[in-house]
Amino acid sequence: MTKTVQGFPKDFLWGGATAANQLEGAFDVDGKGLSSADMVAYIPKALRTNDHAIEITSQRIEQILSGEFEARFPKREGIDFYHRYKEDIALFAEMGFKVFRLSINWARIFPNGDDALPNEAGLQFYDDVFDELHKYGIEPLVTLAHYETPLGLTQKYNGWASREVIGFFTKYAETVFTRYKNKVKYWITFNEINMMTLSPFTGGGVVIDRVDNKLQTIYQALHHQFIASSLATKLVHEIIPGSQMGCMLARMESYANTCNPEDVLKNQQENQMNLYFTDVHARGEYPRYMERFFAENNVALQKEPGDDDILRQYTVDYVAFSYYMTLTVSASPEGERAQGNLFGGVKNPYLKASEWGWQIDPIGLRIMLNTMYDRYRKPLFIVENGLGAYDKVEADGSIHDTYRIDYLRQHIAQMKEAVRDGVELIGYTSWGPIDLVSMSTSEMSKRYGFIYVDLDDDGNGTLQRSKKDSFDWYKKVIASNGEEL
């Protein structure tokens, strides 16, 4: 009789997750080129037309580069991790991190994306960061592309809309695999690869007003990313024995609004369109349901001979994803809408929401983990999960973020239940362990961290780091391997 697993594995990877463009800063230091993220301006809340004005037009890029468009670009400044990484990593180590997820900014290594030679100063920076992590016994988990397409590739090739970018990406991947082969075991190719369907510029440096057929371009660019991801998986296994390559999805588990079969069917279709990306990565082929979608939407993928073989031969080792909320799907256009991180749906009356309107659903995480493991039978890795909230600094400097502790406690408890269900879960990196610039709004007031950073939405502050109540709480969680919540 098989004994039921009661808790997290002994080698479970606890830690936190970040992105270069949201924390490094130093956007023009040591030879770094501009990236897509460097084009995203901060728009004060009162002037926003929506919660994610992150698509950039050709005209706006030219206005920014010429200086005609003046604004703050917070992702250029980040929280100055570039100069403060030793201090920050020491704090992560104090919490007991086993793993730290970060991304390499592609434009630090190849400033224009298509350079003949890599930028040594950029390579050395990540060498130093990885060395600092290993000093404390922390494993790096490295994302190759986290919304950081070199702007040069956008200008010359319209980003991933061009197949030529595959070669530039694999050259970049081979460069960093070779350089860090003794320092990095865990890798991810593309962060939330489904972002391409929501913001092509963010997901792949594609300026959509340069093309005639938006949907065709989006799915063609995704095909190029799938091929590049498979080729990078092939390379990492050849260059780094024992390495692990994962794909990464913004997972949007959804429910039917009612038991009306029309709602149920609509929900099934929504889930398929979200899982399509991991189906290709983990199963090694396009799912059959996409054939009808492509036919009905006049999408004709241009494939080269051998593409299907590449996808089939070089599937990922594990499936990673972000999880913040669930959606509720209705076939009817009526009903109160819910907000979300670039996604939307019908409001679920059984769930509470964050201050940004994201519906909080810990049980949904357990449901999602079981669904994903049943579908792929590959190890799963939660590489983003957290609560964005306003934090108040008390007169004595303390920050009592009980709301964040409650959110994380409930989600980790459901993770443990999923492990007991039989799910193979290898790690959890909360987003983001230190306050950083918001991806969708470029604001600082939407805070996720265990560590507070003294910086406001207008760029004012000392950048001083201080611990929130959640810092000591998460330290106990890690020390007890998830038993003390």
TrEMBL record:
Active-site residues, record numbering mapped to chain: E384
Gene Ontology MF annotations: beta-glucosidase activity
InterPro entries on file: GH, GH_1_N_CS, Glyco_hydro_1, Glyco_hydro_1_AS
Record's GO cellular component terms: cytosol
GO annotation terms (biological process): carbohydrate catabolic process
Keyword Hydrolase applies: yes
UniProt entry tagged with the keyword Iron: no
Keywords: Glycosidase, Hydrolase
PANTHER family linked to this entry: 6-PHOSPHO-BETA-GLUCOSIDASE ASCB-RELATED, GLYCOSYL HYDROLASE
Protein family (similarity comment): Belongs to the glycosyl hydrolase 1 family.
Protein name: Amygdalase
